[in-house]
């Protein structure tokens, strides 16, 4: 295993031993990434998330007993989240593009999904991306994925009314996938100010990261 101090700690979850072994070889060759463990099913994954405290979990969707969707839901149960000193990010792995199960996992808290035939470079980039709090698929694809089984937007919860006018501008820009630099140019603010606004939005709405802002916006019909 490689990585050293400050490395991104990764947990691999897949019911195929050979697949896990192959991914570990790929990640062990990457600077700043360390595979700290692997699990063959969702139940074992939940135990190792609490025991090993990974930064990123690569979670297969289709597994016996406890599948990746249910395991993701349980990873982000409020009582589990409250016990952690630092956040854990989940990226689900699937064989199918725009998988409805992936949409459900994202609603439960996953930061996006990857196809199992992704390249080693894309896999490493995805781990670094979600560790930074961003999504690993484009906002357009995420919107398409979420809207496939969205019956009707829910009314915006009362917490949304607590956002200031500037925070609502930033909220919409984040939900459309703009970077902090792009948002700053749009709302005439520095990147550090945008980060402050994003932090306030996450806190007020009880969300974990920018991915959840995208989910929140689409599920509540908040994008014109």
Automatic annotation (TrEMBL):
Keyword Nucleus: no
Pfam families the UniProt entry points to: GerE, Response_reg
Domain of life: Bacteria
HTH luxR-type domain location: 156-221
Keywords from the UniProt entry: DNA-binding, Phosphoprotein, Transcription, Transcription regulation
Cited Gene3D superfamilies: 3.40.50.2300
Organism: Kineococcus endophyticus
Domain spans labelled Response regulatory: 9-131
Entry protein name: Response regulator transcription factor
Residues recorded as bearing 4-aspartylphosphate in the entry: 60
